[in-house]
Amino acid sequence: MPLCRFLRPAHAAGLAGAPQALQSASRLKRAVYTIGYGGRRPEDFVSLLKQFGIEQVVDVRAFPTSKYEGFKREELEKFLPQHGISYLWMEELGGYRRGGYEAYTREKKFREGLGRLEGIAREKPTVIMCLEGYPSGCHRRFISRELARRGWRVLHIVGKGRILEE
């Protein structure tokens, strides 16, 4: 069960603006963040990403479109770089899989996608993004579980200064 921690932004070196409690731990273990954009405005979304020092958004939606303004793939590809954040859609980690997502985690395509994500996350602070605010209601929980098994620290951004840790 994830543990909720209330953290405040740091101004010291480390994860480039990440919460202070994460800075020393991040040196010990690699970290990947997750976030859901549902119910957020694009400006608030970017503010959260900046609070945690995120430089790369990896979109793990099966279909990178949205009823929320500003969160379609084409919009994110233009908007995020204006704020110094890269965007990448990874179809191979998208949800809605025949037979269920948990079964999909055992397939070669998933493992290759996860390896690709790990390579990206080694280069710069990365967040995986989908719609749901909490990972318990999203396929990000399966991706997170596999990352944790591979030695990654997984931090779910749920609000301003708040994370859930895998």
Descriptive report:
The protein is an alpha/beta fold. It has one domain: Cobalt-precorrin-4 Transmethylase, domain 1. It is built from six helices and seven strands. It has a seven-stranded mixed β-sheet with strand order 1-7-6-2-5-3-4, with helices on both faces.
Topology:
Elements (H helix, E strand, L loop, with lengths): L2 E4 L13 H9 L2 E6 L5 H10 L4 E4 L13 H7 L6 E4 L11 H4 L3 H16 L2 E5 L9 H10 L3 E7 L2 E4 L1
Parallel strand pairs: 2-5, 2-6, 3-4, 3-5
Antiparallel strand pairs: 1-7, 6-7
Helix/strand order, N-terminal first: EHEHEHEHHEHEE
Shape: globular
Q: In CATH terms, what is the architecture?
A: 3-Layer(aba) Sandwich
Which residue ranges are poorly predicted, with pLDDT under 50 across at least 5 consecutive positions?
1-17, 23-28
Q: What Rg do the Cα atoms give?
A: 15 Å
Mean of residue pLDDT values? 86
Describe this structure in a few short sentences.
This protein is an alpha/beta fold and 166 residues long. It has a single domain (23-165), classed as Cobalt-precorrin-4 Transmethylase, domain 1 (3-Layer(aba) Sandwich), CATH 3.40.1010. It is 34% helix and 20% strand.
Q: What would the keywords be for this entry?
A:
single chain; 166 residues; alpha/beta; Cobalt-precorrin-4 Transmethylase, domain 1; seven-stranded mixed sheet; 20% strand; globular; disordered N terminus
